[in-house]
Amino acid sequence: MGGHTFRRAAWLAAALLFPLATLAQTYPDKPIHLVVPFPPGGVADIIARPVAEKLANALGQPVIVENRGGATGTIGGAYVAHAAPDGYTLLFGTTNEIAMSPTLYSALPYDPTRDFAPVAIVAQFPNVLVTGPTVKATRLADLTAQAQAKPKSLTFASSGQGSTNHLTAELYQNQANVQVVHIPYKGGGPALVDLTGGHVDAMFATLPSAVALIKGGKLRALAVTGESRSPTLPDVPTAREAGLPGLVVTTWNGVLAPAGTPAAVVERLAQALKQAVDDPDIRNKLAAVGAEPLYTPPQAFAAVIRADYARWSGLIKKAGIKVD
């Protein structure tokens, strides 16, 4: 049994000595750290900051956003998994390190199904296929034709090996019968910088991370991967409309606490996040960057994690992707 397991057991034992109502009343009485497991500029960071601001208002304590990027979110994930389960260190989690990484890594420093207490999903969004100045194609079909004519001639950026950007590109290759070259970065921000600079050709970027660059004319959007068109980019077709019916990918952002966090604290956080997501200001801010505000409470969030893990593990195994 590891050291952090003993610490968690000690915290649990201590928590049981106090009534849950008292815990709920006294929590929080100091600043909370919200760990974003990706560098600044990526979608998780873009969404986490306004959520943290509203969460602080709801809880009456500062919520400090802390970026701990690297290894497709797993470094930040491990940091929170091993933190004291007292509600003061939280993960602004993503589909990457929670639902995808368990299959990608043979030796994760945490178990996503046992080392976290899901609190709430706060937003979901599609990916968007964007191209930089090196690509002349204006439609998905044109890009696919180019990729089919010259296999491995196009480079696709991602926020890291095994990220949602990478796995969506893998799905695209399978669906369109093409071969592209994957270029992984240490986060969506750095990847988009190189894409706009013409160092890579394309990317299945998360919509919130790319929408400003699209609207500013720095990138061209060819398709979104949602079930329907994004209200933020109503003129951009879905991949399904553009001829690839199976290329449907949406991902989420949500808050998770270390396993063993008292139920009353999880419930207090969940209610505060519901209050934050229901705030018209934050709904407008999220919608403006292409994210759909979405509140999903703890038990339903846990069910989403299980379903997403089942979906992505099958796709990852089929594509033979490993990250070690």
UniProtKB/TrEMBL annotation:
Q: Does the keyword Ribonucleoprotein apply?
A: no
Entries under SUPFAM superfamilies matching the protein: Periplasmic binding protein-like II
Q: Membrane-crossing residues?
A: none
* Keywords recorded for this protein, A-Z: Signal
User: What CDD domains does this protein map onto?
Assistant: PBP2_Bug27
Q: Which InterPro entries match?
A: BUG (IPR005064), Bug_dom1 (IPR042100)
Question: Which family would the database say this protein is a member of?
Answer: Belongs to the UPF0065 (bug) family.
Question: What is the name of this protein?
Answer: LacI family transcriptional regulator
What organism is this sequence from? Bordetella flabilis
